Amino acid sequence: MQKNNLGYPRIGARRELKKACEQYWSGKTGRDELLDVAERLRRENWKVQQEAGIDLIPCNDFSFYDQVLDMSLTLGAIPKRYNAVLTQNKENTELDLYFAMARGYQKGGLDITAMEMTKWFDTNYHYIVPEFHKNQAFKWFSSRITEAFSEAKKNLDKTPKPVLIGPVTYLLLGKEKEEGFERIDLIKNLLPVYIEILNKLKDLGAEWVQLDEPFLAMDLSEKEKEAYRLAYTTIADECKELKLLVATYFEALGDNTALAASLPVSALHIDLARAPRQLDTVLDAIPDSLSLSLGVIDGRNIWKNDYEKSLSLIDKAISRLGRDRVFIAPSCSLLHTPYDLDAETAIDPEIKNWLAFARQKLDEVSELHKIAEGNASLLEENRKAQESRRISERIHKPRVKSRVAGITEADTERRSPFPVRQKIQKKRFALPLYPTTTIGSFPQTPDIRKLRAQLKKGGISPGEYAAQIEKATVEAIRIQEKIGLDVLVHGEFERNDMVEYFGELLDGFVFTQNGWVQSYGSRCVKPPIIFGDVSRPEDMTVQWSRFAQEHTGKIVKGMLTGPVTILQWSFVRDDQPRSETTCQIALAIRDEVVALEKAGISMIQIDEPAIREGLPLRKKDWPAYLDWAIRAFRISASGVRDETQIHTHMCYSEFNDIIAHIAAMDADVITIETSRSQMELLEAFSGFRYPNEIGPGVYDIHSPRVPTVEEMVVLLKKAAILLPAENIWVNPDCGLKTRKWEETEAALRNMVKAAALIRKEV
Ligand code: GLN
Ligand code: ZN
Fold first, then answer.
1. What letters, b where the CB count within 10 A reaches 16 and e where it falls short, cover 190-229?
2. Staple partner for 532: which of 395, 663, 698, 711, CB 3.0–4.6 Å?
């Protein structure tokens, strides 16, 4: 029985790589310093894995930015626009070319845009999207992978296992940059390079090689399935002496089980944390030649493994395959979990005893192995921890559970249908056509951030902090009045982050000090942990909204984060369905909405930017998810009277295939990001498909550029063709917290002018 690991976090337990990269980018340090930090991190990773007793230790899982970009560089899939990076400036190295692809390059008269970035399956990790052209040729460009193997070999007692993204997944992760071909057709051009690399690794002494093929767990077309067969029979023919391990994760193999089992490789890895029930079907399907790597430890979450549950899977596999053909492993790369629970000194010990981060998960692999070999004594402590979690009063709040169980149909519905509400609200607010507003946050200046840091360190008292935040809020109100916006916001100065702020005020959440997880490049997030039943001990935002409202004669929108987004951006409990947790959060938000209404707030925005990213990876699972996600939003929004206007906001996303569900959220107003697509995204909302009011974003907030009045008028005219004028709002694409005040004021002044111009045309 081998102890297997698919990959390890690389940003550093103290985010050393983040700091080293950012210093290198800013020119403060040189290449050697960066390479040193990277080497140290790799060595540390190998050391902890070796100490934990892992047999198949990955190498080439390290990356300076992203493992998909590494693959593009390795395979010579380098878009032409980057040629100049090396030719024009002779001092630049392969590493500079690499960072140019990741981040764009603006130096020495060159101005080259970065490659696109998108989400890695349903995680919060973002990868750099490969760019493909018709008949594209590949060649082995970067020797990083063989260097990684040689370096690992020097540092380890056992032979390291190189990790590569498999050829089919690599192609499917990319995008066609011209018409007239499908990227999967490039497989024939790609395979020779894989074979060359694999054979070189074998020459250097590699035994096992891991090829990541998560697409085997996704919906595949016939052609894509055929590409799998072709790819792996070709590789198996050409690389006979290597043992290949094909790794799948994030979903069950499902209808691809027979395909995956038929690939002529030595081992298959499956995700049994996400999809434990697939073990039976996979066991039925695999031939005698195949070993099975059991991903029993959740690589996507932070909970201590339930050994009994895992052992029942491991024992079943052993009894069918024999010990020699069974590997024990985390479900996926540990990239998605924080480094080390031991670094958390502030988490309550009772809760801490329920958790495991990357380093602890390695120990779990090892302990499960020992238990499966007969050392049952290790079971007892784990059993106790699981039991304490099952019964803890910290987690289980009968009042919360019974309230969720008691939710009725009526709790998910506003009192009157939208047309009735719209009439009442139009009369109440008496806003002009094309009312102007913003999405919520105003610039989080260094001064504001400093205040929060001081409060945390005890440098200022909560009273002083509040006074300063109040001052910033009043200033923001005055600025908005001067600009002439119709509906104001309080500016969100008191919030560090739109999820963390609420998590800190809700019961059932806990926060880490060092629980960083890579999001993209050098960026990390520190997701809150939802460990127990969620409830709202007291008001969370009422004080700030009321304060802002008292300082102006105009309407100030209340500002909340929605239940699905809070769920989506946290580590979530694994002891109850996600839908149940979301319902609990929805009730807490609902209470806050009602409290805001009571405090005299007449418009309340509930942000749900993460609704779309929560969509399951397999289409067949979409309806069930959309059902509970939309219901949760409706629960949070439906406690108020008809004259209270509920807004929601969503960032850049395709709405076409889920527009009926967006409409079913029944917010009185939705603001969406549309400017970057020139209102193309708005088309989903046209016709009768979306009856409620809409604020299509008229300018992009991701850049400091101040939009002109004219360009916003053009966009609004486009919107007016698609929607009835009485339904249109005017606002930016998203919140303005990352912008500076100067550009913010200038942009909003132009936006208000654009609204005035379009009103004249009606
Ligand atoms: N209200 C939030 C803000 O303005 C919304 C942010 C978001 O959509 N991600 O910052
Ligand atoms: Zn947004």
1. bbebbbebbbebbeeebebbbbbbbbbbbebeeebbebbe
2. 395
Mean predicted confidence (pLDDT) in 287-304: 98
For the Cβ of 607 lying below 6 angstroms from any atom of ligand 1, the answer is yes
Q: Which atom of ligand 1 is nearest to the CA of 651?
A: 8
Residue 652 is predicted with a pLDDT of 73
pLDDT band at 653 (very low <50, low <70, confident <90, very high): confident
Residues with Cβ < 8 Å from 604, sequence gap 6 or more?
557, 558, 559, 560, 593, 596, 597, 640, 644, 645, 646, 647
Find, among 478, 477, 466, the residue nearest to 543 by Cα.
466
Give percent of the chain with pLDDT exceeding 90. 97
Contact 133, 178 (CB under 8 A): yes
Q: Are strands 2-3 and 105-107 parallel, antiparallel or unpaired?
A: unpaired
Q: To the nearest 10°, the Cα dihedral for 33, 37, 38, 40? A: 130
Rounded CA gap, 534 and 631, in Å?
17
76 has a pLDDT exceeding 80: yes
Give the atom of ligand 1 at the shortest distance from the alpha carbon of 649.
8
The predicted pLDDT at position 651 comes to 87
Nearest ligand (C-alpha, residue 438): 1
Write the residue with the smallest CA distance to atom 5 of ligand 1: 735
Mean pLDDT of the chain: 97
| C-alpha distances out from residue 397 to 287, 584, 678, Å | 48, 11, 48
**Residue with CA at minimum distance from ligand 1 atom 6:** 735
Predicted-assembly ipTM surpassing the 0.90 threshold:
yes
| The token pair that represents 264 in the structure block | 């002529």
**H or E element that contains 530:** strand 529-535
What's the whole-number mean pLDDT along residues 207-230? Answer: 98
Distance 620 CA to ligand 1 centre (A): 30
Instruction: For ligand 1, say whether the CB of 696 is within 6 Å of any of its atoms.
Output: no
E strands in 590-698: 603-607, 645-650, 669-672, 693-696
The 10 Å CB-count burial string (b at 16+, else e) for 512-544 is bebbbbbbbbbebbebbbbbbbbbbeebbbbeb
For residue 609, report the distance from its CA to the centre of ligand 2, in Å.
Answer: 6
Tell me the CA–centroid distance for residue 703 and ligand 2, in Å. 14
Q: What is the pLDDT of residue 654?
A: 86
* Bridge partners (DSSP) listed for residue 105: 112
| Centroid of ligand 1 to alpha carbon of 502 (angstroms) | 13
Active site residues: 702
- For residues 36-48, give the mean pLDDT: 98
- Per-residue pLDDT at 89: 86
Closest CA to 726 of 693, 758, 690, 684: 693
Mean of the pLDDT values across residues 361-376? 96
Q: Please write the tens of the pLDDT for every residue from 611-623.
A: 999 999 999 999 9
C-alpha of residue 733 to centroid of ligand 2, in Å: 7
Ligand 1 within 6 A of CB of 273:
no
Quick check: CB of 439 below 6 Å from ligand 1?
yes
pTM for this prediction: 0.95
Question: Predicted confidence band at 676 (pLDDT cuts at 50, 70, 90)?
Answer: confident
**Quick one: tokens of 3?**
């102890």
Whether 498 is in the pocket of ligand 1, judged by its Cβ within 6 Å, is yes
Beta carbon of 734 within 6 Å of any ligand 1 atom: yes
Separation CA 686–CA 683 (nearest Å) = 5
- Per-residue confidence band for 205, with pLDDT thresholds at 50, 70 and 90: very high
Q: Whose CA is nearest to atom 10 of ligand 1?
A: 735
Residue whose entry in the numeric block shows the structure tokens 């709405």? 655
Is the CB–ligand 1 distance for residue 558 below 6 Å?
no
Mean pLDDT for 126-148 is 97
Strand order in the sheet with 603-607: 487-489, 555-561, 603-607, 645-650, 669-672, 693-696
Residue nearest to atom 3 of ligand 1 (CA): 735
Instruction: Determine which residue's CA is closest to atom 9 belonging to ligand 1.
Output: 609
